[in-house]
Specification:
This protein has helices spanning about 1-15, 55-60; strands at about 20-30, 35-50, 70-75, 85, 90-100, 105-115. By secondary structure, it is an alpha+beta fold. It has a single domain (about 1-115), classed as Beta Barrel (Thrombin, subunit H). The termini are far apart.
Length: about 120
């Protein structure tokens, strides 16, 4: 039963999600401690939730109205803190990720993001 539900959720993200660019970020530092940032982009599909004034995270001051939560299939990679997501010509930094599991399998990844 769980496998059927997992396939169903994946199909819904594929069918109703939108294309986003995941920008993986890595930093290196020279001998003076100056950072050099390198990025690589990949295309992913995600549900997009735009936060509004009525959302608890906005009311609590953690996020602002217009920040977003992106919902990915559980088998996606590089959905991690510090990476960025480009959606609708705007860039968002991943602040927190939550993996939602069922029967020991991650079936959806929630990426909470702030506009850069």
């Amino acid at each position: 039963m769980v496998n059927i539900d997992l396939r169903s959720i994946s199909r819904e993200i594929e069918s109703y999600g939108t294309s986003v660019t995941l920008r993986s970020v890595s930093s290196t530092y020279n001998e003076r401690g100056d950072p050099t940032e390198t990025t690589s982009d990949s295309t992913k599909t995600a549900f997009v939730q735009i936060l509004t004034q009525s959302d608890d995270m906005v009311k609590e001051g953690i996020f602002r109205s217009g920040d977003k939560i992106f919902w990915f299939k559980g088998n996606e990679t590089n959905i991690s803190r510090g990476n960025r997501i480009v959606h609708a010509s705007k860039t968002y930094e991943i602040i927190e990720t939550l993996e939602h599991d069922a029967a020991g399998t991650t079936f959806i990844i929630e990426a909470k993001c702030k506009k850069v």
